[in-house]
Specification:
CATH superfamily of the largest domain: Rhodopsin 7-helix transmembrane proteins
CATH topology of the largest domain: Rhopdopsin 7-helix transmembrane proteins
Number of helices: 12
Protein name: Melatonin receptor 1A
Subcellular location: Cell membrane
Keywords: Cell membrane, Disulfide bond, G-protein coupled receptor, Membrane, Receptor, Transducer, Transmembrane, Transmembrane helix
Largest sheet: 2 strands, antiparallel
GO molecular function, one term: G protein-coupled receptor activity
Number of domains: 2
Structural class: mainly alpha
Pfam family, one: 7tm_1
Strand content: under 5%
Strand order of the largest sheet: 1-2
Amino acid sequence: MACRQAQKVCGLQLSASYFRVETAGNVFVVSLAVADLVVAIYPYPLVLTSLFHNGWNLGYMHCQISGFLMGLSVIGSIFNITGIAINRYCYICHSLKYDKLYSDKNSFFYVILIWVLTFVAIVPNLFVGSLQYDARVYSCTFSQSVSSAYTIAVVFFHFLLPIAIVTFCYLRIWILVIQVRRRVKPDNKPKLKPHDLRNFITMFVVFVLFAVCWAPLNFIGLAVAVDPERITPRIPEWLFVSSYYMAYFNSCLNAIIYGLLNQNFRREYKRIIVTICTAKVFFQDSSNDAIDRMKSKPSPLITNNNLVKVDSV
């Protein structure tokens, strides 16, 4: 009896621990999704408007807001990806300390800290005057040629440094994964579970695609910052435009990655699609039934005529 109670207690503890792990990880994933959605709510519709009018006609204020939100999305994405990598690193490589580091309260605090740092990182653009309309991409965005020192700082702190941190975390995780596969990992450490490996691979692919999509634009910015007068005229317009849209297309890729690599996301996608299709069929059937009822229902004139005939008889 005592053994069974102990097993139940251990099972509840493991379930609670797993729930905390999933909650902490999901908080960062949701935060990353919010960063991806920021550009879709305001800046992208304004870019489409600019395309249709072949230029910016919405005024200075909208230009600054659009550029600010676009930068907020970019920096928020890389900071959240960094937070996810650190979270995965602590969970897999330092699992004994994970529950203390990533309690529910601490996890929400980390997410808030990420967004505070993101806001602080984007505010200097308003003082430097680097948010300008670029006719090549029909959008208000960060201008790489306004300040060389600021552009170098942006590339370093908003791309190179986070990429270095994420690379370190994932390299350490890959080393542990290889050790587990080769069975050379010490037995006194917790084992790596299959779902942990799947989640890690998903977020690793998110990181790799982010780095690949954003690297060309950042390296162009770094080259321009080193010598704006000589480098800027030598960069082909098609190269800048393709690297720009390649970078911002990254926001659309994360949902696809989740759907391809995560079974839970695939299940939810199917449920949403089925719900939408069912709702369309239901509304169509309801409207058809209403039309049929209207057709089969006798008109008031006919009913009144019939009543008159009956009364007259």
